[in-house]
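Problem statement: downstream parser choked on a complex file, so we are re-checking the raw output for the beta-D-galactopyranuronic acid run. The parser issue turned out to be on our end (a line-ending mismatch), but while we're here, posting the original submission so the record is complete.
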Amino acid sequence: MTIPIDVLPSVEEFPDPFAPASGDRIATPADWPERRRQIRDLLLFYEYGHLPPPPANLRSELLSSLSFPEGRAVEERVLLSCGPEDRVSISLSLLRPAQASRPCPVVLTGDLCWGPAPAAGEVVRRGYALAQFDRTEVAPDAPGRDTGVYPLYPGYDWGALAAWAWGYHRVVDYLTTRLDVDPNRIAVTGHSRGGKAALLAGALDDRIALTTPNDSGCGGAGSFRHQGPGSESLDTITTVFPYWFHPRLRDFVGREDRLPFDQHFLLALVAPRALLTTNALGDLWANPEGSQQTYLAAKQVFAFLGAGTRIGNHYREGGHEHNADDWNTLLDFADGQFQGRSVMGHFDGRPFSGRATAFSWTAPIPPNG
Ligand code: GTR
């Protein structure tokens, strides 16, 4: 697993998620949990760094509660604290339907640093709670490891994406304590660098039922090997934003063929829980074409696990933003997943037809399958 880069084999196509580094290709879904652990270990070792375990001392303090017009929604502001000497703090905004008859599903985003979500009213109208926090309270979006969670966990080699994902997990810790939130219907989302973090959060935490990164691109749902025109490269991202990742990732610049994974491995970690990647056709930097390839590759894993209808991919016109249309797409998919409504046909986006597939393997057919 943690083999030095010079010894890693060159693999031009997407690595086969069903093939361990040594030994036979896995054969049945019962083999997946062990293979999934290997994939997770690879991604943390080479790409993101390692996350500390959940702290046992999470506390919450209600700071304010505000009813919105006509009593349809309530917004609570809650201060979470946890970690060494209670020094991790996260301020959470939780907007929820005022009169839900049963625990409601929730969508969680860490992008409050970029302002409130554009579709808050629609989220609540559809019966969801909306939880928003500022991931940069957990770790700064800047180089340097003197602030945020880094000095609190000195033994950890995590980059900012892993720290932000850990922040999502701490909010999930809190959400699962609330009686008005359904712990089985927690969705996470985020945009761009926030989408990378949300995807990593969903990949690593089985409590998250639906993971929906938007325009997450390089280091998210975009591929390192399959780069569409104008897309961000491994070289660029690790030059401009080295602190998002483990330093080891940069060793693969110009040697992407030696990566023992591509980003379809990250998507596959979500399976068999639900995953929707949303993309914009004009957002070339985020590699919409490479995201189609990772989607198709990860879909093999979902299908193998009997979860072929739990993965979706969506494209809209336009550029790099997390707009109301993206949120509506998320909610449509979530409605389908959480309420058993079949909307899957709309979520099989593959506009880049005619391109060669970035992989030649397919899912093993289980014996008696
Ligand atoms: C860009 C970066 C992308 C993406 C984007 C964003 O500058 O190169 O990977 O994360 O920022 O977060 O909006």
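For whoever reads this later: The chain has one domain: 5-339.
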